[in-house]
Amino acid sequence: MMKRLVSSLSKCPVSILSLRCWAVSCARLLRGKRGRWPEVIMAICTVFIAVYANAQTRIAAEQARIADRQIALLRSDQRAWVGTELQATYGQGLPLDGRVILTNFGRTPARNVRQSGKVQYERGKSRFEFAPSDSMLSAASAVGEIGAGANIHAPFRTPQLLTEQDIKDIESRIVVVYIFGKVTYKDAFDDGHYKRFAYRLYPATHEWEFLNTYNDGD
């Protein structure tokens, strides 16, 4: 009898359906026998099928997670990555005049690039006290597309001219000049991304320094 049961199982590929079929075959072969052997065999097979199905489910889930990680790594390697650099000058009787250089360090174009920015004069606030935010920005303007390894210059100019007193306040750090903004774009996979930037003027060297906050992206 046992040989016939094993033979019936060996003829089918291992799957949940074949295990069910084998369990039914066992029950049929044992039907009419004394005792509760058919019920016992069915119970054992049911437990085995449940364990097998759970193992297959976990294997499939792990394979799906591995596939998702591989896709994420591929996208991260091939997507656009936009960075910023600030160049700006100022002087007595002149506006604060400059440009934000947007560079795509990725391997595919950055599409639908939009940028917003703001020049902020803060009196009596250090770089640790000033906290730029998205709500302080003006409406974003379209920049276009930035190819892989390429850059675009986004110029800006303040409407007011700096007076002699303005320059003295800036040089003595009574007034601190901040420039900050946000860039949004889409990559080749149509996923949206952003890059925020924030600088402050260091008057001793006339250079623009990164702030510790608001300089982030994804």
Defining traits:
single chain; 218 residues; Immunoglobulin-like; five-stranded antiparallel beta sheet; elongated
Overview of this structure, please?
It is a single chain. By secondary structure, the chain is of the alpha+beta class. The protein has four helices and eight strands. It has helices at 2-10, 16-30, 37-78, 164-171; strands spanning 82-89, 97-104, 110-123, 141-146, 151-157, 175-186, 192-202, 207-210. A five-stranded antiparallel β-sheet has the order 4-3-6-7-8, covered by helices on one side. Strands 1-2-5 form a three-stranded antiparallel β-sheet, with no helix packed on it. Helix 2 (16-30) runs antiparallel to helix 3. The mean pLDDT is 82.
Detail the topology: elements first, then pairings.
Blueprint (H helix, E strand, L loop, with lengths): L1 H9 L5 H15 L6 H42 L3 E8 L7 E8 L5 E14 L17 E6 L4 E7 L6 H8 L3 E12 L5 E11 L4 E4 L8
Antiparallel strand pairs: 1-2, 2-5, 3-4, 3-6, 6-7, 7-8
Helix pairs in contact: 2-3
**Percent of residues in helices:** 25-40%
SS field, number of helical segments: 4
In the CATH hierarchy, the architecture of the largest domain is Sandwich
Mean pLDDT: 82
Lateral arrangement of strands in the main beta sheet? 4-3-6-7-8
* H and E string: HHHEEEEEHEEE
CATH superfamily of the largest domain: Immunoglobulins
Quote the beta fraction. 25-35%
Structural class: alpha+beta
CATH structural fold name of the largest domain: Immunoglobulin-like
Task: Provide a short characterization of the protein structure.
The protein is an alpha+beta fold and 218 residues long. It has four helices and eight strands. The longest helix has 42 residues, at 37-78.
